[in-house]
Amino acid sequence: MSRRYDSRTTIFSPEGRLYQVEYAMEAIGNAGTAIGILSKDGVVLVGEKKVTSKLLQTSTSTEKMYKIDDHVACAVAGIMSDANILINTARVQAQRYTFAYQEPMPVEQLVQSLCDTKQGYTQFGGLRPFGVSFLFAGWDKNFGFQLYMSDPSGNYGGWKAGAIGANNQAAQSILKQDYQDDISREEAVQLALKVLSKTMDSTSLTSDKLELAEVYLSPSGKVKYEVCSPESLTKLLVKSGVTQPATDTA
């Protein structure tokens, strides 16, 4: 059935499906997993880096985590070149808002404006949907800490804990069992590492296969976005019992 209706994003199949958009979501299923967890004192984002070759120079910048504004960051799963375009769009939107109103852009408004752009690519001929899903973590004065998940269709939703990328169904089911509403940031980090260790394809978790970032409030009340260094990440992995101390030289 799909053969006749999947050549364009603008054609509905008789069952009411847009196959090209579904295929874009399928492409994300092959990307490295990213997990976001909302805690009472912050938001934790953890991502799996796909190391395709030993010869690759590991990037000094982060591969899965991106800062959009001082109060918003995101984790990415999917085609990175598509993600870069959308991240730049989001950054410009956030700065335009700050320039116009002299205050940070509300997190949901920023997510919605980006999803409007994504939605446009599913409705006009000659365009293909962005093959990328996002987890947005942020804080604003209206709703405090927030976690949003969006996919290539332009849909988005607020989540307490979510997973995108490879094995996201398995990760979601573990999160559903183990997540608690009053979880602290430290516990959220432990939970995210535990989920990733169970759902990742590789046998051992090491700091060069992972990225961890947190959005939280500093004691002065300022929103902070912090990416965990490889050394701190190795210590966290050992502490959570996911990896053995001897394996950090591997």
Automatic annotation (TrEMBL):
Which segments does the entry list as coiled coil?
Answer: none
- Native organism taxonomy: Eukaryota, Viridiplantae, Streptophyta, Embryophyta, Tracheophyta
What organism does this protein naturally occur in? Cicer arietinum (Chickpea)
- Name the UniProt record assigns to this protein: Proteasome subunit alpha type
Sorted alphabetically, the keyword list is: Cytoplasm, Nucleus, Proteasome
Q: Which family does it belong to?
A: Belongs to the peptidase T1A family.
Record-linked CDD domains: proteasome_alpha_type_4
Where does this one sit in the cell? Answer: Cytoplasm; Nucleus
Any Gene Ontology CC annotation: nucleus
Q: Which PROSITE patterns match?
A: PROTEASOME_ALPHA_1 (PS00388), PROTEASOME_ALPHA_2 (PS51475)
Give the multimer and partner information.
The 20S proteasome core is composed of 28 subunits that are arranged in four stacked rings, resulting in a barrel-shaped structure. The two end rings are each formed by seven alpha subunits, and the two central rings are each formed by seven beta subunits.
Q: What does this protein do?
A: The proteasome is a multicatalytic proteinase complex which is characterized by its ability to cleave peptides with Arg, Phe, Tyr, Leu, and Glu adjacent to the leaving group at neutral or slightly basic pH. The proteasome has an ATP-dependent proteolytic activity.
